[in-house]
Request: fold
Amino acid sequence: MADILIRRRGSMKAKLTNFSKYLSVLESNDELSDLQVLDLESRLSKFEKLYGEFDTLQTEIELLSDNPDDAHADRFKFEEMYHNLIATARKVITTEQGQRRQEQTSAGSVSGSEVTGGTRNLQPIMGQLPSSRSNLEFPFLNSSVDYAGPILIADRKGRGCKLVKSYICIFVCLAIKAVHLELVTDLTKEAYVAALKRFIARRGKPRSILSDNGTTFVGSDNQLRAFLQNSNLSYDVAQEGIEFNFVPAYSPHFNGVAEAAVRSTKHHLKRLLTLTHFTYEEMATCLTQIEAILNSRPLTPCSPDPLDFCALTPSHLLIGRSLTSVPHPQMTDSGNISRLERFQRVEYIKQHFWKRFNTEYIYLLQQKTKWSTTTGDIKVGSLVLVKDKALPPLCWLLGRVVQTYPGSDGVARVAELKTKKGTLRRAFNNICPLPLS
Reply:
C-alpha cells in the first residue's frame, strides 16, 4: 500500500519539475505574447489544485510510515518548491499585466470635460473560465436562470377570450449550454419556486444557481433558506440546500450564458407569436419544441471529415442522440457478441461524446475575443462616480470604494461603494474613477 502511495507522490513531484522547466523557459524571454500569458494562467489554475491532492496523499504516507521525520521532511521539500513556483508564476503574470497597464495609462490623464461628457469607466481583463463551465459533471448541476417576456396568452379558446401576461423561466446548464424552459404566469417568488420544483423534478437538483439581482430570485432564495432552517426537516436534508449566486447589479455580462439563451428563445418565439395568441397548453407545447431546437444546436463547428454527419449538441450529452432525430430501430444482436460487449459499446459511445465535449467545446470556450487588456484598476478609498443610464452624468452618485472583490485569478471586477443613498455593489464597468491626482 505504501509503495503505491509513494509512486503516486513521485508523479506529483515530476509535475513540479515540469512546471519549473516551463517557467524557466518563460523567464528567459524578454516579453511574453498574449497567447503565452493565457497559457500560463491556464496552467497555473490547474497547478494550484496539485497541493490539495498532495496533502491528502502525504497524510496517508505519514500515517503508514515507520519514520515520521523523513515523511515530514518530504512534505517540507515539496511545499517549499511548490510555493516558490506559485510565487514565480504570479510574478511573471503580474509583471506582464503591469507593463501593459502602464502603456495604457501613460496615454494621458482625463480632463474635466471628459468626466462629465465622455465618462471613462474601467474594464478589467476577462477572467479565467470558471470550473462550473469546464468540469465534466452532470448536466444542470451548475445552472443559470433568467426570465424572458412578457408574452400574452389567451385564458381560453374562442371569442371573448382575455389576454393575460405570462413569462418564460429559462434554466441553462453552465457546462454544456443545455436549456430548460418553464412557463410561469407572473413574476412572484411563489411562481419561481414552483418552476424551480418542476425543473428539479425533471433535471435533478442543482448544486448552484446563478441569477441576477431580481426581486423574484432574491425573494425565492430567502424563502428557501427560511424553509430549510425553520421547518422540521432532519439535519441531513436541511443541509442539501441549493447555493444561490447573484451577479452585481446592472452587469448582465456576468450572466451571459442565460442572456444568450433569452435571445435565442425570443428569436424562435417571434416567428410563432405573429398572428395569433396561444392558450396555456399550446404555449407550453411550443416552448417544449423550442427547448428541443435549442438543445439540438451544434456546440462546435462541424468536422471537416465528409463521413462525420453528426455535430456535437447538448442533447447528445443529455440523452445520447439529437432530440430532433428519428429514433433508430432496435438491431438484433449477433450471436458472437456477448451482453458485456454490448454494454461496453454503449459505454464507449457515452465516453466518446464526453471526449468530444472535452476536446472541442472546452477549447472554444478558452478563446478570449475581447477584454484581453485592462483599462486601469480601482483601489480602496478611491473616489468614483456610479454610472446610471437613466440619469445624465452630472446627476450620477458620488461614492467611495470601501471594498473590492477579486476573482479566482486575483483580478478585482466588483467593488462595494459607500454613497449618500447607502452601500452599493457595482461591477467596474459601471464605475468611473475621478482623476484627483
